[in-house]
Design a protein that fits this description.
The chain has helices at 12-27, 56-61, 115-128, 189-198, 271-278, 282-287, 335-355, 360-363, 365-372, 375-381, 393-400, 435-442, 459-469, 473-476, 501-505; strands at residues 2-8, 34-38, 52-53, 77-78, 81-87, 93-95, 111-112, 132-135, 139-145, 148-154, 157-159, 165-170, 174-182, 207-216, 227-233, 242-249, 253-261, 292-302, 313-314, 317-319, 454-455, 482-485, 488-491, 512-513. With 527 residues, it is α+β, with helices and mostly antiparallel strands. The protein has a domain at 2-65 and 116-200 and 309-383: FAD/NAD(P)-binding domain. Helix 1 packs parallel to helix 3 and helix 1 (12-27) packs parallel to helix 7.
Amino acid sequence: MDVDVLIIGAGPAGLSAAIRLKQKLSALKMDASVVVLDKAAQPGYHNLSGAAFEAACLDELLPGWRTEAGSFFSEMVPVQEDELYFLAPGGKALRFPEIIVPGGMKHKGDYLISLSRLVAWLKEKAEKAGVDVYTGLSARELIWDKNAVKGVRLVDQGRNKDGGKGENFQAGEEVLAKVTILADGSRGVLSREYSAKIGGNVNPQVYSIGIKQVFKLPPQNNFGANRVIHTLGFPSRPDVFGGGFFYSMGQNHLAAGLILGLDWKYTDLNPEQEFEYLKTHPFVAKLLEGAQLVAAGAKTIPEGGFFALPRLWTDGALVAGDGAGFVNMEKIKGIHYAVLSGMSAADAVAEAWGKGDCSADSLASYEQNLEARGVLKDLRHAKNYRAVFQWGVLFGAPLSRIQAFMPLRIPMGLDHEHTTRGASLKRNFTPAVNRETFASLSGTFHREDEPSHLIIPDNDICQRCQKELQSPCTAFCPVEVYRWKPEGVHISASNCVHCGTCAVKCPFQNIVWTPPEGGEGPKYKMM
């Protein structure tokens, strides 16, 4: 299968790139086939975010979108109340005066959205523009010619549990393209392969895990509307980066969650349980009084920032969105950067297409486009933001106010290197929602008789990990994919929500996350 422009990932970056590229080619009176492939069964099923959104980026992408019939704008909730609290262990909640809240953490003027719904709407816009969007197709690797990307290979369909060919076996196709835009999200398989080969990042990429639940609120509730609350403190210790969030959604719904940096040292930290523990704080419990839990999910968030960006283009390829690492932790935002980077990539491709040359030199305008739209400027301002917190919140918080003016890069280590023998939270707590229920609320599905997409190369290493660290994977997976048995770690791959935490946090890097068959994984509809 040969196409002109191939985009991997039907998220905000990939779909924005597709829409913008069709617009630019039409203006230039040129044509090219633009194809988007996504591993989810439906657009938006694998997209999750808080999500506070700076919507101005859509004004450039889709002029007049706010007033058109059926616009996604009608689903967006404008932020009118914006609060930051410190939750003390004893049950107190102390509100920070607005004057001392960092500007990047202020959200008035933003909109609260469901990223899953935004993506579904963008898919409709892309198809109306002439883009071919194919879901349920999972890409497993790039096709290279030296440092030039020539296309992708898809995952085989219909293999048996032992890897043999089943009755409905279908070999993964090769999809060749003159230029490929990688927009496959946080820890995307292809964007990681690209970064490993092309390089460019001077700090390694680091991550947080975001745990999110959506609640239906009673008509009379304690949260109200158009409101954003962020929390610091409880339940985390000062050496764990992160905090809670509570966002209004339309139709009496509330999005709530907890973000935790994956560089924690504790061998038994269970992020799903930590969120349940956060919900026991009297301040939070009052907000959720009478609320009904209706959905749940988790994903990793790339936090390395400016110094962790790879070289963003090569011969025949560019990388955009979370796959590149365009998340600004100073603002705790990435969606509008995904849209802006998708448009920037599309502009570079359109220019290269006009020259009939998709080499790295012709695609280099991508960097200038990112600069012009302020993406690199914002990330440069937050260049050391996440790095200063690697020494703990008490040290990092004051440094975060001046990190933008530090002339030097602060090095960072890999997340899994921080796991420490003997470091334990020892929570004596029974969560209201266990991990099995959490998995069911994500709607995740994988064919039971296919090969596991989660691979442990060396069981002897697992035995050593159990002896030295008590198998942290049995704790840190939010949906309990990993369980310890005497013969080794048992994997329940059907529970996986594709967050990628396991491959980041395994202390011995003995878990390999490979793409499963297309159409599998979570089914996020409100995330």
